[in-house]
Amino acid sequence: MSKKSSMFKELQKAFNTGVSYMIPAVVVGGVFLAIALATGTATDAGMEVTNPFMQNLLDLGISGFSMMIPILSGYIAYSIAGKPALAPGFILGYVANNPIGESQVQTGFLGAMILGVAVGYFVKWCKTWKVAPTIRTIMPILIIPVLTTFLLGMVYIYVIAVPIGGFMDWLVVALSEMQGSSAIVLGLVIGAMTAIDMGGPINKTATAFTLALMAEGVYAPNGAHRIAVAIPPLALAISTFIDKKKYTTEDRELGMPAFFMGLIGITEGAIPFAVKDIKRVLPAIIIGSAVGGALGMMNGVETLVPHGGLIVLPVVNGKLWFFLAMLIGTLVSVAILHFTKPNVEKAEKVETEK
Question: How far apart are CA 27 and CA 33, in angstroms?
């Protein structure tokens, strides 16, 4: 087996391990969020949950989602380098998923995946160091975790996050300049940005842009954005329902939670699927969300609150096209997944033969 092929298999195993450990947090967070938000009321600030018990349930769901990305990063690192990589992986995964640095950048699941891999291979290298026996005993619990977190954390904050922050600022300006041009193009761009990193910096930039326009009384871009947020999880859910041979049992069990997350506008429900098969899932959901966003803009859909999914239908102007745009965008993604994803048995056979 070539070195390149061996590394690819190691990375594939690492991503699968990260997803396997992340799934319970996704399910717990998604189920609790769905139940709590279903009892809420749409307001200018989003979905407001007033029942104290449901608010507690909402907080538990948010906690599950907050743990989701650090778990992904931590267990990607763990799969590559073992226990010494766990703590740095968790910490840097948390950092990736939360604003940090002067620009307050967060890179979401894509950043967490990169940091998980970086931690794994850095720790794996550290474990090859030849040190005195007395030092070796404290390497996995003190030296490796501290050194890894410090070095990679500083690289992330000062080298990676700064240009990303600049890029996000440029995106906001570019979107503002596009506002007066074709509604279809703006809808396509907003929809694609919404899906590309599912809650990451590009998605958040689209959110910030639409919120700024809402403050000026312009609601159509928010309509496109709130249609698009629901499409990735809905598409993956429906794909698992109708194309069962293309998903493992574990993936299929995620279908129903993803479906409910789509109904309440939680894009992150699609993340586990994207991590395991990013080259097929990302294009499918980006195209589907772009189509949904464009249809929303073309037909003047306006969402009056900063939340998405069918749950906000009562506060939407253009309810029929809000629903149709979401449905059509979802079906576009489902169709792309149907024709691009191989059956699980066939994919495993191909990997074995490599």
Answer: 10
Residue 170 CB neighbours (<10 A) = 11
User: Are the beta carbons of 336 and 239 closer than 8 angstroms?
Assistant: no
Across 104-118, 123-137, 144-158, which has the greatest mean pLDDT?
144-158
Residue 224 identity: A
DSSP, residue by residue, 4-26:
HHHHHHHHHHHHHHHHHHHHHHH
Distance CA 250, CA 119 (A): 26
At residue 46, the 3 state secondary structure works out as strand
What's residue 241's pLDDT? 95
**Sign of CA pseudo-dihedral 119, 120, 125, 131:** positive
Report which of 226, 247, 345, 265 is spatially closest to residue 40, judged by C-alpha positions. 265
Chain position carrying tokens 């279908």? 255
User: How many residues comprise the chain?
Assistant: 354
Q: Give the C-alpha separation, 335 to 280, whole Å.
A: 12
Please give the sequence-ordered ranges of beta strands (E in DSSP) within 215-348, or none if there are none: 302-303, 316-317
* Residue of 92, 95, 96, 74 whose CA lies nearest to 14: 74
pLDDT of residue 349: 52
